[in-house]
Amino acid sequence: MNDFRKPRVIIADDERHSRVLLRAVLSAMRCEVVAEATNGIEAYELYNVHKPHLLLLDINMPRESGEEALRKIMTDHPGAFVIMLTAVADLKTVEDCLSMGAANFIRKDTPIDEIKGIIKDTWQQFSRMRGRAESA
């Protein structure tokens, strides 16, 4: 993610080992992890406080799912850049998240190099689309 400043990221996942792995991946990509959430309620609240460039949001979390948090975030922040995380390939839920405005999704069993590639490619596509929308 080639920006003049470090992209700010929130990681929302109830599994600690997933957050640790993603933090390491994002650090290697020169991103700044500004917060971590363990459920959808925290993800929504932290998004409102930090307004990050990127939110990595797990679909299956306690208290409030990532899908529910995504719905609220996209309502309040229609330009949010969110990539969903999933351990299971529940295509219906993934499709629902994409139709609500999520930019992409990453399966948790994806190799690290591919995770980096998905984040980078999605960021570039999202930035181009946002640039077109702002100039229209």
Number of domains: 1
**CATH homologous superfamily grouping:** Response regulator
Q: What's the pLDDT, averaged over the residues?
A: 89
Order of helices and strands: EHEHEHEHEH
Could you give the count of β-strands?
5
Strand order of the largest sheet: 2-1-3-4-5
Structural class based on helices, strands and sheet pairing: alpha/beta
Shape: globular
Which parts are unreliable, with pLDDT below 50 for 5 consecutive residues or more? 132-136
Question: CATH architecture, please?
Answer: 3-Layer(aba) Sandwich
Number of helices: 5
Distance between the termini: 24 Å
Cα-atom Rg, whole angstroms? Answer: 14 Å
- At the fold tier of CATH, the topology name is Rossmann fold
Largest sheet: 5 strands, parallel
**How big a fraction of the residues is strand?**
15-25%
For the record, what CATH class applies? Alpha Beta
Percent in helix: 40-55%
